[in-house]
Amino acid sequence: MGQHLVLAGAGHAHMVTLQNISVLIGKGHRVTAIGPSEHHFYSGMGPGMLGGTYASDEISFNSKKGVEGQGGTFVKDLVVRIDCEKKTVTLQSGTEIGYDVLSCNCGSQVVSSFGYGEIPVYPVKPIENLKNLRQAIKQKKTGEPVCVAVIGGGPSSAEVAGNLIQLFVQDGRPGSKVHLLCRSHFMSGFNEKVRKYCRGYLAKQDVIIAENTGNASLVGREVVLTDGNRIEVDFVVQATGVRPVSLFSDSSMTTGPDGGLAVNEYLQYVNDPSIFGGGDCISFMPQPLSKVGVYAVRQNQVLYSNLVAALDGKGLQTFDPGGEFLLVFNLGCGYGVLQKMGFVFRGKLPFWIKDLIDRRFMKRFQG
């Protein structure tokens, strides 16, 4: 008799598994995928969607169609609790679903103590928020200047800021402003060349970069900084770093220091061999991993292989995070900054390389 595989989330680490649902069903198993939306957006191309380089359908996967088209079941909902003893997941709607094997790829949430005021606030996760921000800006009166505050000092904030400038140019909004407000230092986790190139390009695009602003809050239509400075804005983007969703701590499960599901070298929950996970929602206990999409992509094949092994009662494969990975930041208007180990360069070519890699990824899994 086959078993029931439940996929909590349809993110990057589940791409190979989602692509092979028909194989699992052919073995006699049942597959249920649960996601908060029928479409999943590829985060690496999100800023480009904001700027207008990509249409939303170019960077999204139709999860529902892909699952159901292979004979699986798709449930549009959110997993809010896992009961390891009963082997069930509880959904936001109150529905309970039983599983034999469970795999979690539930993503991350924005870390912020940012207060909300009278104006729209758009966290960078989920990526659909960037689509909504683009639509909200385009709905403004033709030619009307717009002011956006981007809260955060990392690569997400840099990419969002640069692509907002691209949107303003394409949309014909002269006089529009982007304030990039860094709690501490801009791009502090990267080498001096990366910081210099990103800062220099954004400054040329008239992005206003402020460092050591501390925690910001909203009062009316103004962003208020800890030094008392006030900036009147139309929109706010939160790019203040991410952490795993609270699902696992809410379920009294063992988590890593960042709150992610504690998994071993097989991407298997340390306290239950029937539960696996990948992507931003896990804490890989053999070594800490940055919250970057490249690890989720690298986990794809191993996670799928181990889910098949768990369903079929076979041996597991270990996950090797690999060495240094390529980083390319899309700063808008076809400009990128590339870093690989100690090598850094900037310009149109880095963006072209990123665009090529991203489009190949989409072509591989979008069908």
Helical segment tally?
10
**CATH class wording of the largest domain:** Alpha Beta
**CATH-derived architecture of the largest domain:** 3-Layer(bba) Sandwich
| CATH homologous superfamily classification of the largest domain | FAD/NAD(P)-binding domain
The tally of structural domains comes to 2
**Strand tally, please?**
25
User: What general form does the structure show?
Assistant: globular
Q: Helical residue percent? A: 25-40%
Average pLDDT taken over every residue = 92
- What proportion of the residues form beta strands (DSSP E)? 25-35%
CATH topology of the largest domain: FAD/NAD(P)-binding domain
Strand order of the largest sheet: 5-2-1-9-21
Q: Supply Rg.
A: 21 Å
Distance between the termini: 30 Å
Question: Which consecutive residue ranges, at least 5 long each, have pLDDT under 50?
Answer: none
Strand count, sense and closure of the main sheet? 5 strands, parallel
Q: What would you call the structural class?
A: alpha/beta
Explain how this protein is built:
The protein is built from 10 helices and 25 strands. It is α/β, with parallel strands linked by helices and 367 residues long. The strands form 8 sheets. It has a 5-stranded parallel β-sheet with strand order 5-2-1-9-21. Strand 13 (177-181), helix 7 (192-204) and strand 14 form a beta-alpha-beta unit.
